[in-house]
Amino acid sequence: MKDLNSYKVWTAIITPMNQDGSINYADFEKILKQQESAGNAITLLGSTGEALNIDEDEKKKVLDFAIGLKLSVPLMAGVGGINLHTQLDWVKYLNTLELDCYLMVVPLYAKPGVHGQYGWFKALLNEADKPCMLYNIPGRTAKNLEFGTLSMLKSHQNFWAIKEASGSEEEFAKYVKTVPEALMMSGDDLMLPAFSKLGAKGVVSVASNVWPQATKLYAEQCANGSFKDNSIWESAIQSLFCASNPVPVKALMHATGIISSNSVRLPLSQKDMPDIEIVKKSDTAINGWFKARS
Asked: Any idea which architecture 4-224 has in CATH?
């Protein structure tokens, strides 16, 4: 049994693709093993993994492939959509796999209130047989994870953690106060220094796709209070969001030879990526930062 609370970094892993948009499993194995080598846990089929752009059969193949590698680090699978019956069926399927936990996002598009969110999450938590991390990302869902919902869910046996990506220190502090027993994780690389001071135990990270070891050190320094290089990391992280995620991180991973293609699926497009030099400059800065501290 893996200790899920001991990992400072959960990499929200990309899904690497060939030029024709099919999934590149050779690249996928490479990047998964890079995360294992760094000691980072892995989140599969989240928004960074383009889960909404991948059909169900492909998602099952992605999970089977990752599980089949028998990695030593935990695997978390994403659960997110708008139709409850579809998501319950998805959780039932996940229960049959050798996964360690699930990531459950606030329902998309509908903007449910306290009781709608409670009914949604309670149904999913009841169906799950693994620990579940609830995900607040109002920038994508147009609705916060409600504090009242959490108050009603906090004693549920499968409620384990929160991934908090509001971008607000005030909001983060309220989540900590509402569910002090839950593991609190920053859902935003940029906010990790501030959130760590308020109780975050680590980060569910986009940056660790391209900088697995450096991001782990960044998270460890934030956790122990020794992190002092905010300007370097702030600039680098902001560059990874100069277009919709994961367009920039895939562009950089391709430019540095980590993956064979920068392909994303519509409605994402690499044509929306500004000058590649933006992220290449960040790569040089972070690699230099890490080398100086290794």
From this structure: Alpha-Beta Barrel (3.20)
